[in-house]
Amino acid sequence: MKKNFLTAFFMMVTAVFAVHVCAGGKTEKTPQGKIAVAASFDAMQELTKVVGGQKVYIRTIIPAGVEAHDFEPKAGDLTFLSQADVVVYNGLGMEPWLNNALQAAGQNKIRTICASSGIEPIELAEGHHHHHHADEHEHEHEHEHDDEHEHDDNTDPHAWLSLVSAQIMVKNIAAGLSEADPANASFYNANAAAFIAETDALLTKYRTQFMQLTNRHFVTGHAAFGYLCRDFGLKQNSVEDVFSAGEPSAKQLAKLADYCNQYGIKTVFSETAASPQVSAALAREVGASVQTIYTIESAEDGLSYLERMTANIEKIYKSLAQ
Looking only at Cα atoms, what is the longest distance across the chain? Predict the structure, then answer.
């Protein structure tokens, strides 16, 4: 049923796109000498910028404030896709619309970079309101994906919220950009290597700090931080599930309040996209404070990927060290 709806939707968008182009629809001009890259959402744009620097011109397809899981591209998005040299996307079911969008844009030969290729996905237990991973921050393993674009409710797509995963992502982006622009391959690879060195230092610092804590449980607005938990041996619980699919019932909230009391939760982390009012109500109930945490799906506070990830990790550490 969903696939039929998507097909019908994209047939309609394709027709609008054709009219848009035939009518001389506005196009974005890529600056001379730069590779035009379409990034699916903000985290992909940020990581592409880390690798590509001034050699790439990037446009983010999913606009700020739009829930990435439910995005539907418009004619203007297809116009940019039709002109792009490369598209960078997360994979793990985060962009189920991408195949159809590329076809609608007439982009059968565009270079696609699946940033999550090689990252071991976190599988979700069926019907679980939340999930957690503790003491599992070993090196991630190679993993083949059958179809990176298909939506999969059994897989957590939030791999970018992990420094270990981000290292793999920048390697994939550097490899893809190097194929698209061989003349600048050494530039892309050097930028990826610098990012990996910087994140290695952060991983070493915070793994040492988290290992000294007896309590590693924290509570978030929605269960987006499973990969970060895997980096540092933490456990998350959440107000909403992985896909922010509706607010919890009174019974689920009561259970979450018990969890907060059991583990002495002093901070409830809130995200703008995941019921901040409910997070605030839970915090009041258990006598905790509320702090914002970044999901990096949209641009936030003018901060880079690494600035936001460092802020997230530091806030979680401080909340647990109280």
Answer: 64
Residue 135 near residue 170 (C-beta atoms within 8 A):
no
pTM of the model: 0.84
Amino acid 250 reads: A
Phi, psi of 88 (to 5 degrees): -110, 125
CA angle 256, 259, 263 (to 5 degrees): 145
Confidence of residue 152 (pLDDT cuts 50, 70, 90): low
pLDDT at 4 over 80: no
Q: Sign (positive/negative) of CA torsion 48, 54, 59, 62? A: positive
Residue appearing with tokens 């895997």 = 230
Please give the full DSSP string across 218-237, using - where no structure is assigned: EEEEES--HHHHHHHT-EEE
Assess contact for 282 and 260: CB atoms under 8 A.
yes
Query: What token pair was written down for 257?
Result: 């309040």
pLDDT at 297: 93
d(CA 88, CA 151): 17
